[in-house]
Amino acid sequence: MLFASFIHTELRSLPGCPQKCGNLTIPFPFGMESNCYFDDSFHIICNSSFKPPKPFLRLGRAEVVSISLDGKLEILNTSSMVGILGKREDHQSVPMVVEWATGSVACHVARNNASRYACQSPHSRCKDSSIGQGYICHCLPGYKGNPYLLDGCQDIDECAVSNPCQGVCINLPGSFKCYCPKGSVGDGRKDGTGCHPEDESILRSAYLCFPIGIFFVAPVLATTWIAWTERQKKLEKHREELFQQNGGNLLLRKLSRRRNTQLNIYTAEEMKAITNSYNTRNVMLGCSPGDFYRGTLLDHNSTEVVVVIVERIPQSEIEQFVDQLIFLSQPHNNLVRVRGCCLETQSPLIVYELHGDGNTTLFSCIRSRAPETRFSCGMRVRAAAGVARGVAYLNSHKCNRATFVHGNICSANILMDSSYEAKIFYAAGSNLIARGTSSLGQENCVYRDPEFTRAGCLNKRSDVYSFGVVLVELLTGGTVFSPNRRENDRRMALDFVYLAKGGRLHQILDAEMIDEGDGEVVREVAVLAESCLKVEPGERPNMKKVEAKLTTLVQMR
């Protein structure tokens, strides 16, 4: 889609594709060969009959002079001058600057079609085009490059490029942090208060007050100012101590060695602003530990988030907690992503992406009986495959050489987005706090591996058992997680295994699975659930095998 103006930016083509035609670099989504451009409207023809070769739009045949990834294109359009000069044979190239956009739909629609969504970089954002149709991709603030490529938006090292700090500069993904050296105070920034000796501000105030009234006014003002300054120093020192205890310095060191991790570190004051002083409506995520608050990031998109207050992490587990934060900040289709954290408070605060309204969970989808929210057999199998994919991804990762175990899988911990894609929520550090305990909340017991009750330890096969209970919920439409359920009803998983072995599965299957479901697919899911619920952990399949089986069943439908 094309119209008018102009701007320059860094350019890159798809790997393996020709990058230049003559003197012009051709960036993706434009391209000159098959599979090198986004669609036909971005196809460039390189005419080598000119010396040097010249690029032309395949649609319209206009010569391309320059390309900007901000949605601007400069072309030479050959126009007849008849009616202007009165000479039919006179032609000349008229320079024009035109505007282009990707696709024909707005951002909120384009994001739902992942296979055709053009903003590929995880550090990019989508902006609706000003010409009325389509959208433009931009790199997030603090990044530069080509947002249409998977690794196209690269972190800007502000410390090296602009040296913005008077004190110590630490580059962070998408931003930077300034610190003053020991013995000085301030924000450390050249465009801020900079760094100055700790007592400088007090002396400055004293010198100003001296002429006004050294015998009366000065002592009062000085005493008040000193008391306030001392309180601020104590508060700042206390926050620095908490930041250190909660793993802040370790996190900064690890982030400085990773260029493609976007994890924001917020101050306590920023968190108060994000959560509106923690007064907003609570977001409840069923069986997850911690307190939950809705929040809004102070960015240009006013992004909605969930802020989780977790218990303090034991010092022996701090490095594993930090590794979990970094791991959970990486984007994955079936995990709720961590956007940032605050570590200078008594209990760490973790900021998560908010999907949908934040209250639509797998639990609520199973329980709902409203016709407009019908949860079909196909949707259930696809949701199960998504959960398995997310758990398998978690289990395949090691944090500080320890296997990542979720330890708290339940249907109320699985968020559903607007396209009913399942996203597992994990409260970072929760299984580190609970490590070594023999019991957790009563509402979680039905999902707990019997081996955990016996031995008090969690492992990957514990996640398999919990996932098996979720499969039972999907098959039966039952609500295993419910504080009001009678104690004998908490045996749903055991009853399921008993009836499945006796060939009486039809007695407890949900009507959606019987009426609309594919009999063979339902039987296969039931067999898989039964194998996940084996009492002996060694007899259960691992999550990779569970994921592969469910992916095959999704493809069968």
At CATH's second level, what is the architecture of the largest domain? Answer: Orthogonal Bundle
Strand content: 15-25%
What's the number of domains?
3
Shape: flat
Number of helices: 16
- Give the C-alpha Rg: 30 Å
Helix content: 25-40%
The helix-and-strand class reads alpha+beta
Mean pLDDT: 80
Low-confidence stretches: 1-9, 80-91, 436-443, 479-489
Q: Tell me the name of the CATH homologous superfamily of the largest domain.
A: Transferase(Phosphotransferase) domain 1
CATH class call of the largest domain: Mainly Alpha
CATH topology of the largest domain: Transferase(Phosphotransferase), domain 1
Distance between the first and last residues' Cα: 38 Å
Strand order of the largest sheet: 16-19-20-18-17
What does the largest sheet look like? 5 strands, mixed
Number of beta-strand segments: 24
Keywords: ATP-binding, Disulfide bond, EGF-like domain, Glycoprotein, Kinase, Nucleotide-binding, Repeat, Serine/threonine-protein kinase, Signal, Transferase
Membrane topology: Single-pass type I membrane protein
Pfam family, one: GUB_WAK_bind
InterPro entries: EGF, EGF-like_Ca-bd_dom, EGF-type_Asp/Asn_hydroxyl_site, EGF_Ca-bd_CS, Kinase-like_dom_sf, NOTCH1_EGF-like, Prot_kinase_dom, Ser-Thr/Tyr_kinase_cat_dom
